[in-house]
Amino acid sequence: MNEASWLSQTRAYLLDLDGTLFRGKEVIPDAPAFIEWLTSTGRQYLYVTNNSSRTQEQVAEHLRHLGIPAEAEHVVTPSMVAANYITEQPNGGRRVFVVGEEGLRTALLAAGCELVDRFESGVDYVVQGIDRGFTYEKLKTASLLIQGGATYIATNADKALPTEEGLLPGAGSIGAAIRTASRTEPVVMGKPEARMIDYALHLLGVTREQAVVVGDNLETDILAGVHADVRSVLVLTGFNRREDIPLAVAQPTLVTETLTELMQIANGQR
Ligand SMILES: [Mg+2]
After folding, report:
1. Both 195 and 254 in a single domain?
2. Which of the following is catalytic: 16, 131, 198, 221?
3. Which domain holds residue 235?
4. What gap in Å lies between CA 208 and CA 217, rounded to an integer?
């Protein structure tokens, strides 16, 4: 199958955000037109982000602020995947100690979880994302709860967040402290795990064959596609360069310079 034939038939786009639609505070110039093309041609899409700190509405608001059409229901966060994971467990436990921010708390509460804020018995889960108010006390509580039998869930394992200040500690760096203290590995929700992609496919009601993961990062976006057995497109507008591809564990199905090039291939114009 040549590249145009599968892509022209792809109905559902699972889109990364940073490096794909915007870079920090700047929109990638062809991103708004790309989203309008998806809508006008009847394609489905979701914004699939590893950001656990923001709510769906906050992510959508940020996109709209950059000129990219977005509603809350277009957004999938790892906090939602964590909440869904908890509700699917057969034991029914929903008492959760959170190491995280508003996006994570909101998603867990929406799923009917009961949030506890100190060490107590009967806590079913420790759910951890990025937490810019992380303290020794939280590390201690999380570690004791996990050692006492609570299941440890991490929203994502990103070690660092690229910012104008440089690389700042991400959820994976906080997770490293909890893993070390509790001697327990978390169940991880976000990219590159398949769970996040599976959840997005479920929300859209499409098959693996009908979808594509689009992103700028070989180790998160493209590897998530490989793990979930969904085709992927690496766009070279963000983190990875063309010379990184041969060295990567996960190979994208297609590589494009821009979203416009991707759209043209899907339209059979290239
Ligand atoms: Mg990215």
Report:
1. yes
2. 16
3. 3-50+191-266
4. 20
Q: For residue 16, how far is its CA from the centre of ligand 1 (angstroms)?
A: 5
- Global pTM reads 0.95
Mean pLDDT (the chain) is: 96
For residues 122-143, average pLDDT: 98
The residue written with tokens 């699939």 in the block is 48
Handedness of CA 113, 116, 121, 125 (dihedral sign): positive
Instruction: Determine the distance separating the centroid of ligand 1 and the alpha carbon of 216, expressed in angstroms.
Output: 5
CATH number of the domain encompassing residue 144: 3.40.50.1000
Amino acid 85: pLDDT: 98
* Residue 240 lies inside a defined structural domain of this protein: yes
Dist. CA 176–CA 188, nearest whole Å: 13
d(CA 4, CA 9): 8
CA distance 146 to 75: 30
69 and 47 Cβ atoms separated by less than 8 Å:
no
What pLDDT was estimated at residue 162?
Answer: 83
Distance 134 CA to ligand 1 centre (A): 24
The residue-averaged pLDDT of 17-26 equals 94
CA gap 61, 134 in Å, rounded: 26
Residue pair 59/52 in contact (Cβ under 8 Å)? The answer is no
